[in-house]
Amino acid sequence: EKGGYDYFMLKEIAEQPKAVADTLLGRIDGAGSLTLDEVRIPANVLREIDKVVVIACGTAFHAGLIAKYAIEHWTRLPCEVELASEFRYRDPILDQQTLVIAISQSGETMDTLMALRHAREQGAHVLAICNTNGSTIPRESDAVLYTHAGPEVAVASTKAFLTQLVACYLVALYLGQVRGTKWADEIRAVVRDLSSIAGAVDRVLETMEPVRELARSLAGKNTVLFLGRHVGYPVALEGALKLKELAYMHAEGFAAGELKHGPIALIEDDLPVVVVVPSPRGRSVLHDKIVSNIQEIRARGARTIVIAEEGDEAVAEYADHLIRVPVTPTLLQPLVATVPLQVFACELATARGNEVDQPRNLAKSVTVE
Ligand code: M6R
């Protein structure tokens, strides 16, 4: 049942192009517009929404952090993202004009379920993004957009995460489409880009051998840091979470701009630091800033592991290890940039002799608060 792979996690990493394509299937028409009939919240209600709140835990929370960039950009609606376990207990401000998006692979996570019940009691509209048909979270929501990742067995979430991202982009683009924003042309273009994104994920998977080699060489390290800016920041958080849960290593993700406010003190000789570099096209100011972050940490002895777009030559000279990902629109980059981090964590866990599919102390679905 592992399809020839040693671990479910490896199989699930390899299934990502299909999972992404399946999640898009039937939701995009040839003209570049979205048909999300499943989102049963009527268009007139969606037009009245004045705030979006995303609630989730763990990896699904990281998908939510990325959703915020997409939702705010394409809909111009304010969007908050909160850990479900915190949200419920701080008396959040919610009403009939709030759209709450609950993201959960299993659909059974108790923290997320309690948060969504609270949101519905306050009159908010709840849309679930979920991978498990008929599970509790979609049953208790007003509407559901299923991710079509197929069953995810490994405790560490991989293909479900990528499909959560796809679903989040679809919701953001759909809200933009329904509400009509100045980004109509861009929305159509991104919908077209999404159609080819599964191929890009596939290309990343074909080039992972150097990443595995690198991971094995770092098996004796105690700490790895991850840096990113913009949507690369949640990717850094996700890379760090994967490493914690699988390799049992101290790993932390930071917004690269925060380095100088404290974390740079952690940099010491030969400390591995993974940096997710945004595209040099589009928001090039972000790119310039991260290049100087890489220079700063390298000058202090860090071993830089740089994830950068194909053709981005400016970063090459500061990278001790360079991992290339295909060119994508800025907001979609997490779909390709996360994959090397999954492979990296899985290989490190194996090299350290850890149980990949069943990491210690963890369960696939957390049904207690
Ligand atoms: O089933 P859910 O998506 O609600 O699960 C949320 C988290 O428990 C989950 O993402 C967890 O962080 C994973 N083990 C991460 O790999």
Secondary structure: elements and pairs:
Elements (H helix, E strand, L loop, with lengths): L7 H7 L1 H9 L18 H6 L2 E6 L1 H18 L3 E5 H4 L10 E7 L5 H12 L3 E6 L5 H4 L3 E4 L12 H21 L4 H12 L1 H10 L2 H9 L5 E6 L3 H16 L2 E6 L16 E5 L7 H16 L3 E7 L11 E5 L8 H18 L18
Parallel strand pairs: 1-2, 1-3, 3-4, 4-5, 6-7, 6-8, 8-9, 9-10
Function: Catalyzes the first step in hexosamine metabolism, converting fructose-6P into glucosamine-6P using glutamine as a nitrogen source.
Protein name: Glutamine--fructose-6-phosphate aminotransferase [isomerizing]
Subunit structure: Homodimer.
Name its key features.
44% helix; binds 5-amino-5-deoxy-1-O-phosphono-D-mannitol; five-stranded parallel β-sheet; 15% strand; 369 residues; globular; alpha/beta; single chain
Straight-line distance between termini: 32 Å
Can you write the helix and strand succession as a string? HHHEHEHEHEHEHHHHEHEEHEEH
SS element count, helices: 14
**Rg for CA atoms:** 20 Å
Mean pLDDT: 94
Range of strand content: 15-25%
Class from secondary-structure proportions = alpha/beta
Largest sheet descriptor: 5 strands, parallel
Low-confidence stretches: none
Shape verdict: globular
Query: How do the strands of the widest beta sheet line up side by side?
Result: 2-1-3-4-5
How much helical structure, as a percent, in the residues?
40-55%
